[in-house]
Amino acid sequence: MKTIFQFMRCIFGMKSPWPVWVGLLLALNMIVPLFFIETPEAKAILISAFAGAGLMMLLFNKYGFVRLLGLGHIFWIPIVIWLGYRLPEFSFSTPLEIWFLLIVGVNTISLILDAIDVVRYFNGDRDPMVTS
Q1: By CB atoms within 10 Å of each CB, which of 14, 17, 41, 69 scores lowest?
Q2: Full-model pTM
């Protein structure tokens, strides 16, 4: 539990707008699925979010708050592909379909930012982004 609190302290220690961005990701991937939990999509999104959070906690424990943490979102790739291919079949007239569009859009942006961060980490940018 201590690790989670240290991790969250680092998130809130980031410069604006990053804490708001992380809050949006948390809401879309961990809170909103609870409203649609009867659907397979919500279950898959929630599972991928918790798997990613677990990986991030392992990485955070070993390396600190570094750019490598972007690997935690790797579990979103199949979700984004799965829902992205299905977007043309949606009318976006229901909250569920609007949420699917937001998941694809916001998570894709995050995956691009994560890929940049992970590449930067492997290219030597290994300093903590925020100290815990």
Answers
A1: 17
A2: 0.94
User: 6-25: per-residue pLDDT in tens?
Assistant: 999 999 999 999 999 999 99
Structure tokens at 105: 């859009």
Contact 109, 22 (CB under 8 A): no
Task: Give the model confidence (pLDDT) of 67-79 as tens digits.
Answer: 999 999 999 999 9
End-to-end CA distance of the chain: 14
Rounded CA separation 132/123 (Å): 23
Distance CA 114, CA 104 (A): 15
Q: Check residue 1 and give its pLDDT.
A: 84
What six digits make up the tokens of 101?
């569009």
Structure tokens, 131: 């100290």
How far is Cα 29 from Cα 62, in angstroms, rounded to an integer? Answer: 25
Side chain identity at 64, as an amino acid letter? G
Contact indicator for 102, 28 with CB cutoff of 8 Å: yes
Q: What is the DSSP string of 85-126?
A: HHGGG--S-SHHHHHHHHHHHHHHHHHHHHHHHHHHHHTT--
